[in-house]
Input
Amino acid sequence: MPGNRYDILFQPMRIGPKTAKNRFYQVPHCNGGGYRDPSAVVEMRRTKAEGGWGVIFTEQTEIHPTSEITPFIEQHLWDDRDIPALARMAEAMKSHGALAGIQLAYSGINGPNLYSREVPLAVSGGPILTFTSDPVQARTMDREDIRDLRRWFRNAFRRSQQAGFDLICLYGAHGFGILQHFLSRATNQRSDEYGGSLENRARFLREIVEDAREQTRGEVALSLRLSLHEGGAFGFSNAELRDFIEMHGDLPDIWDLANGTWEACSGTSRFKPEGAQEELVAGIKALTPKPVVGVGRFTSPDAMVRQIRAGILDFIGAARPSIADPFLPKKIEEGRIEDIRECIGCNICVSGDMTQGISRCTQNTAFMEEWRKGWHPERMHPKGASDSVLIVGAGPAGLEAAHILAKRGYAVTLADAADKMGGRVLREAALPGLSAWKRVADYRLGQLAPLPNAQLFPASRMTPEDILGFGADHVCIATGSHWRRDAVARLHLHPIPTDAAMPVFTPDDLMAGLVPQGRVTLYDDDHFYIGSVLAELLVARGCEVDYVTPAVKVAEWADNTLEQATIQRRLMELGVTLHLSKAPEAVGADGVTLGCTWTGRQSRIAADAVLMVTARRPDDALYHATRALDWQGAGIKSLKLIGDAAAPAPIAWATYAGRRYAEELDQPDRGDALSFRREIAGLLDLPALTPRD
Ligand code: ADP
Ligand code: SF4
Output
């Protein structure tokens, strides 16, 4: 309870005309649902309100169709018809006393307008700068366009206030928002009164802040979300930001400072520690009388308190920590530090936005399922008619299933062949940069420990006979997977010729402590993190590494976790030789024959060993062997296969599978009905438009 050393985090804080109940500030973050899944997003934000956040923001909200970032799915505030969905969001955010914030965005040089088909407008015209190199350029705004833009912002201010928001965030960070494009000499090459000197480049910001105050009669608080540092010779550097804040210290009601690019701001734990932007933000508070919020993947309350006490930040900004644990503030307030579900910094949540799927979280399996499935990050449905469950395999799938089922009230037994519970996350956490993965096991083991209805049996390899003899009502098999050795994955659908004299390793071998010697060909047809992590491990063990991939770049799926460029840079800096658009066609006794994926042209590299980072085989033999016996005759009501043992995938898929199994146990069979709720756009009763005569 309060009275603890974290009290300072719970002081009410003024933000202009509003007061936040504490210093926990959920900065704007995407979720892959946006306008497509309005109720799913509303309920996701409501759980944050319930979890004690003082300020809660929407994701980026596009204010006008002349600037939209399709294919990415954010929010729209294009006309009054967008108000009801956002009003519902504001109501949910305020349901437990938080301030509701909306982030308004005009994307300028960042918006290709693939949906609206409008000509993009930018501070200075040129090719659209986004992830996808769209073959589209923006037109330079003239004075009339700037007047229009001010009016569109005014409309958005009015609509935001009408929707019930307490705070408006003006977006100028990550290279995405037009405010940054005005401020930065890289994107502002104007010679009129909006370009040139910093004073001029800041003109538009001053104008729209004034417009916002006038439009909302000063009743809505204003936040400026700016980049802490934009790199490059012409970028809006940290030094210029400091000059700008010194010149305009009073401009917003709060400064929300985020690192330059999204990749730099939201680095994974592999590359960025907690509090990574401290150096860039330290000292800024002294330049302004207004409060400062910053992010840093803060999950440790001690680190948060230190930031406040050291005078670095006034508010603890969080996106990912609030996703992984929407109840982070409440748990700190109640002194339940051990119950915090810490973000592991994997950026799987980001991948939901990048792939236009819907975000999921490795740690918080309820994320974006609050409305779709009625899942809650902290509460589970009480148990159903049956009593006991045996879970075999204590990887992320089995651990999550056990944890949720035990909290539902079942008698849970979790058995694993290994001496330590955790499965793949323990093995992977020992690899370079992945130590945070262990939190997946730590959180669940910590939650299970005090529950008298959960029994854990490490070092217990189960056989089908053990399972039948155990006497549980339900059996869940979560026995994981192992990596293939035969090059089969996406490119090769059948094994390739391999000379038995060549030592061929798999990631499992390396994680078990076996290390190849000499020159190693690493074949990556997996395309996520493990190939590059193992390349680092091999280099650290003194190997010379040839990294071979059929893709055009290293770890291409890691684009979706914002890591690809950092990974590729790291391997190049480590001296790993990259063979892109290539794949092994045959493994000989002393080398590998490579084929070019475009031309088929062959080349050969010498090798002392090969490491295959390809597909995984599900370890489902136990399941099938048990199924072949008379398990129903033994009194088992259901026998299920989940996680990697069913279909190998990233860790987040395994925790999700565990949650789903646990949630659905003893629930009525839904037959062919959808397993989640979705919203379908209502049809407008309007005639089709016809070409004019
Ligand atoms: P997932 O990602 O699906 O959770 P993991 O590979 O992380 O899968 O975990 C699977 C776990 O199952 C491993 O810890 C492994 O030791 C355990 N396991 C595999 N076969 C058996 C078995 N027959 N009896 C008990 N545990 C098993
Ligand atoms: Fe953190 Fe990973 Fe969850 Fe994102 S998906 S919030 S990075 S644990």
